[in-house]
Design goal:
With 243 residues, this protein is mostly helical. It has a four-stranded mixed sheet.
Length: 243
């Protein structure tokens, strides 16, 4: 019976190692996703700045076109001004020309301010692009490292799964079936009983059950947590066996 327990204990050790590897590796995809999110935020900031610059360039082009149109209009009106014979019409057209010139002056001031803002926005894009390039280089290196660790963990798990199949073949079939049922719900699925206490749930097992485990060196089920239980003495080498 001791050999059956040893075989199952070895199988569980493999399962615990696989579980540990998977738990440690589970953090890598989350870390990679977080780094990708960080890069995405930086990219979005640049794209938003580019969209702002594009809008400003359209405004600038429209303003320049409006100024050109108004200047052409003033020239035409100034040509017509010398042709006016009526004082009233002359005064009205002169007033329109004056209004148009003032509007042009206002638009020219707006254009100068917009050009200044546009220059600052373009410089801001250059700065953000430089920051993004630096960030991308650093984060890409980190993501490559994390992917390497993830691949390494997956490779180790694959190797252990091969080892598991080999170890499982040496486990008693009945005991293995019971173990697999429990393992799907909780791990470790098999725990020792020390001084009458289950090491899985820290609850006391019935004294009669504990004595049976100690004398028979077999297994049973914990009444509290339903794990497979055994007396720790069952896996301890006796002096004779140790020689």
């Amino acid at each position: 019976m001791r050999e059956k327990l040893k075989a199952l204990a070895e199988l569980q050790n493999v399962d615990l190692e696989v579980a540990s590897l998977r738990k440690a590796a589970d953090v890598h995809p989350r870390q990679i996703a977080e780094l990708e999110r960080e890069l995405g935020v930086a990219r979005s900031a640049i794209e938003a700045e580019r969209a702002r610059v594009s809008d400003m360039e359209k405004q600038k082009a429209q303003l320049e076109q409006n100024i050109t149109d108004e200047k052409d209009k003033v020239k035409k009106w100034e040509t017509r001004l010398s042709e006016q014979r009526s004082t009233r019409e002359y005064s009205a057209l002169a007033r329109e020309i004056d209004i148009a010139k003032k509007a042009n002056l206002t638009m020219a001031e707006e254009l100068a301010e917009l050009t200044k803002q546009l220059g600052g926005a373009r410089e801001a894009i250059k700065g953000k692009e430089a920051d993004y390039a630096t960030k991308q280089q650093g984060l890409s290196g980190r993501m490559t490292e994390l992917r390497g660790k993830l691949g390494e963990a997956e490779s180790q798990v694959k190797g252990l799964e091969g080892r598991r199949a080999e170890v499982a073949s040496a486990v008693d079939a009945t005991l293995l079936r019971r173990y697999e049922v429990v393992r799907k719900k909780k791990l470790p699925a098999m725990v020792g009983v020390v001084a009458g206490t289950c090491q899985g749930c820290n609850m006391n097992v019935p004294p009669q059950l504990y004595n049976q485990l100690r004398t028979g060196l077999g297994t049973d089920v914990c009444p509290s947590c339903n794990r497979i239980i055994y007396a720790v003495e069952a896996l301890q080498e006796t002096p004779a066996a140790a020689k």
